[in-house]
What we know:
TPR repeats: 46-79
Protein name: MYND-type domain-containing protein
CATH class of the domain at 385-451 and 505-653: Mainly Alpha
CATH architecture of the domain at 385-451 and 505-653: Alpha Horseshoe
Number of helices: 36
Largest sheet: 9 strands, mixed
Family: Belongs to the sel-1 family.
Helix content: 55-70%
CATH topology of the domain at 385-451 and 505-653: Serine Threonine Protein Phosphatase 5, Tetratricopeptide repeat
Oligomer: single chain
Structural class: mainly alpha
Domain MYND-type: 826-865
Keywords: Metal-binding, Repeat, TPR repeat, Zinc, Zinc-finger
Amino acid sequence: MSSSRLALYEQQPGSSSRFDIDNLIDERYRALQDAKQARNLWPTWWKGHLRVGKVYAVLNDHEKAINSFERALALAPTNNEIQKALYESRQILGRQLRLEHLESKLSPRSIPEQLNELQRNLGLDPEEVRMTYRLLEEIDPSIADVIKGHQYEHGDIDVKQDYEQAAKYFAKAANQGNAEGMYNLARLTDRGLGVKKDHNLAQGLLEQAAAQPPQHPLLEELPNNGVALAEHALGLRHAEGVVVHKNLLRAAYWYQRAVNHGCSEAANNLAIMYEDGIAVDKNLDKAEQLYEMSARKGNSPAMLSLAYLLLDKNELQMAKIWYDRACEAGSIPAQASRDVFEKKLREKQQSIDQCSSDELKDINVRKNVLDSLKAKKTMYKQVDQSHVYDYDVLNQYANRGSMTAKQMCDALEHFYRAMSILIQTETLTESQENEFVHELSQCYRIEHIVAQIPGVEMCQKKDDTVDRVLHRCSRESNDAVSQLDEDVRICYAVLHMDSKEFIAQFLGPCKQKYPKSIFFFELSTSVNALLGQYETALYDANAGLTIDSNYYELLYCKAAALRLINKDIDETISAYRAFLAVAPEDHRKVPESYYAMASCHFIHLKQNDTTDIIKKIYQEGEETEKKQLPYFLPYDSSSKTFLKHAFNGKSLLNAEPAPIVDRKLRLRDSHRIEVISKHREWESHRNNLDHSVISGAHKPRVKQQTPKSLIGLKSITLREMNPTRDHIYSGYVLSATIIDAAHAWTPSIHLVIEDENLDCEQMCIYGFPEEQGEYLTSKVYTIGSKMNIINPYLRIGASDMKPFIRIDDFSSILVQSESERVINMCRCCGEPNAPYACSKCKQARYCSKECQTMDWQLYKHKLICKN
């Protein structure tokens, strides 16, 4: 009766998918009570959980809605109605957590409003922008349909907003192979704007867009709009579990692809994963680099995250600069929390002022160690391609007596058989699907880490096959016990392990249905530990051990759960000893077990002789590392890191400090690589007779002028200049060195400069006498030359929206004397007196083979290398 009354509520006019604060809100809360009563009366009925979730969704509480939908899906894992509701709430919650509703860039604006903003910020005439669009339309007719779609989506002069018409034009462009058309049609389809909402169709369109070439097929110097955005959207869908299985590894893969193609949103999301150690190894340097890449492109959430990351690193000046930039960019969270941030900034500064350099160094070392222990746990980490497991190598170790290698070989044999079925034909028969599922489940039972399926398409085929088999088994009977049903449930659980709450629910009925299948208990123990539910994990481990008391995977899980519960050190150590007594000596968790026991003793330090015990156990752990397979070395253990710091802190602190500015570390900076490689691509296009390069420039928004007096000028560096703001820094002087020179001078001289922090940027010089162009490029503005730039103008490019230093007043450049020039500067790292010359062009010099290789591969020296 309760569920029927809820159905009546849903049919009422007020029961929409929107949350309207009016008198119908009481009806919705009454509906929630009815739904909960129906669920409590029959907790194993999936519809009860579904209806509770639907009411929470109407109330805009999507976190609780997702929890109910996942409970329903655990009871009916192939039900389309549940899946659609779950996808919808996951997507909405994702937008809410990303605070998209607070992002000014995402707020609805008409085309004229967008063009007026470009004019205010960059000085671009709206009519000139429209003229550029018309030129592009002549080159690629599908662009005309995309532009028309945008006009109908946002509204334009004499064009009334109409989502249905927008979708038609985007579809027309998509049918011509236009990636931007595909992406925009997917976006509208995902939200049901102008077309019927269909998450699956949107998924297909995004995959089509992401499969297009990253550069425009007709205009190679321009990006293929829509490709990077589609890749980022696919990353979000894998991170949230919309249409596809929630898989953080694949999310990281798609984010990285989008980052490679210039997507700032993807860079921010990938930075979060590196900062927290989600599905990738925790790497704060990588996170900082990605945040900066995103922030430089105007992403205000990245600016805010970068500010806090720099604050933690005690780089207070740049932390404040980026926080201020986030506020200027319109970040509401930054503006609302400015007082809190500034208080933390003052406290940090006071703490630093009160510490000696050695004390500060000690604090930083301890913080780095603690940071390394805070990586968020996921089932799997990103796969390093060098660690794809080689059967022949493992077999050699197995023949020498390695039990772990033998086990991995056995798992690989099942995996290879599963893969051979998957790749042998486009469409599998039911019999082939059943065999695939059996072999894959056997691999997972023996050793899941070897199951590394190459390629996104093959992974999707694997997921779809498992889903189809599960659907068949569920259709026949949810209560029927069979080997196939057990196998497919194992595969399904492993593939969904990133959806931790859902799988914890899913495994409950699995354990009841197959009480002798110990692997379900192992999975349940693992997922509950990942959720922080250590008592439940311990219960699952003990339940599984009643099936096989010597099952060492569960013995290890039990010990880990006891350590995390942190109640009885003796029981915990006994559990680790029980694991060590039966596990192979080269099992990958053996060293970690010793380090964990040592950590337990350290945390519960009670007597003087405990230190000797800790050191002894620690050394035993190091000895067992020598027996590890090469795939697990160097050995990664947070417990070891903690202990190493605890006992070797002094030696760590006495190590030689890294220089304040490390030239070699900056060589792999993504912005540096982009600036230099794009500069060389530009020079190559100009010198290639087979390509025509349109030479021209937009007028600057403001005019640079040289001051009448140089007295009182302040120094400024590139990082202190806002890369998102078109601005002349009057009263400042920028000191720089040329690290990549120009070979042409029309319409401007293009250089790459580097400042004292080793940050680099492109510089374009206008306003020089044209007849002096050849002399200036060959004699004055050469590699290694140093200069001072007065009142530097950071210009935002009109076409690519990227920052560069623009010189309009030729006299604002003061070239330093020849004695200051860096002689024979290494073309890669900038070191002086580089002894080696490029054997082909004889012009580029290098300090080492490493630098020459890096310059050729990363910075594309081959584009400008000539005989």
